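Dear colleagues,

For the upcoming journal club I promised to circulate an example of a predicted protein-ligand complex. I picked one with pyridoxal-5'-phosphate because it came up in last month's discussion. The inputs are reproduced below in full, followed by the predicted structure.
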Amino acid sequence: MEIRENMLPVLGPKGGEEEVQALREVIESGWWGKGPKVAQFEEEFAKMVGHKYAVAVTSNSHGQDLVMKAMGFKGIDVINPAISFIATAMIPLWNDCTSNIVDVKRDTLCINPEEVEQYKKSNSELLIAVDEAGVLCDYKELRKVFDGFILQDTAHSCWTPGAGLDGDVAVWSFQAVKTMPAGDGGMITTNDKQLADKCREMTWFGVSSTWSRAQGQSGKPGYSWDYEVDLLGYKYYMIDIIAAICLEQMKKLPEHLKFRRHVQSRYNAELNPMIERPPHSETVQYYVSRVPSEHRDSMIDYLADKKIHTSVHFKPLYKYGPLKQDREYPVCESEWVKLLTLPCHNRMVEEDIDYVIYWVNKYCEDNI
Ligand SMILES: Cc1ncc(COP(=O)(O)O)c(C=O)c1O
């Protein structure tokens, strides 16, 4: 097969005329900040995932931080998985907590409840569970061994039916390469009204929204300029420009996820048997295959040579300076060296899938 001219990215967002039109409307409306689009998005998103409350924020990372602050988690031990994006383990450090990184299950790469049981401490009050690549954690077992607060990091599981409903709160991501991308953005969803209200208040320095005050909140006509501030707040709210993109992406989500699952099925069916398939994911945030470890890095180079970008999701978090731990991670150590993420996103067309399958299989035939 001839080598293509342009690089095939491993991940990427797909938008169209609908997003452009939605942005145009917001820009021409004269209200760009947090306003009606954010309110509409919060309402529709909460309905989709089946939570009562949704608070739109600047990112998943800020959402997690806000939940920790609203819950008053400071100086405690936070349990989190070894395979995840660095945010999961670093955000506890922003709040003067310790990050207690535990090993994952071999099949799903999600946090292993047995490890949680073994390594939890008397001050382990929070557990951050990541639905790795869109595969849900074993929440039933986690609840048996951990009776603290579970923050479900749903950055990869937007949206799989039932996702987000097992934790005490779910935090979503609309970052540029997620399944519902908007450049950046996040959402906190929960059934806990008190937590939702507090998070909402804290998204803008504890000030009530300008939009609601512009709607005559005081009962008087005109803009109600005055406000009270009763707590320490931050600047973590989503704006209408982002919410407008999110609303369009949400309409396209079923179609987009269907295509991602199609890529997954074709890879599963047609890749060389040397390639270990990932567990089934409804969102396929990443198609994380496993290859013989001695071939992983040379395969990355080989595929890059053929203009195919790949990646590794993820390098274990305990390998990064501020997150170093004094412990053995047998599953992570044996598995992460095999991880190879192949392109899977909504910019791809059928010929791109053919192309990846051809070159991965050619590598296997010629080298393994
Ligand atoms: C598991 C996980 N958690 C959190 C984040 C952070 O999300 P955001 O970029 O929206 O802050 C990411 C981003 O890749 C992620 O993969």
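Two points we might discuss: The chain has a mean pLDDT of 96. DSSP finds twelve helices and nine strands in the chain.

See you all on Thursday,
B. R.
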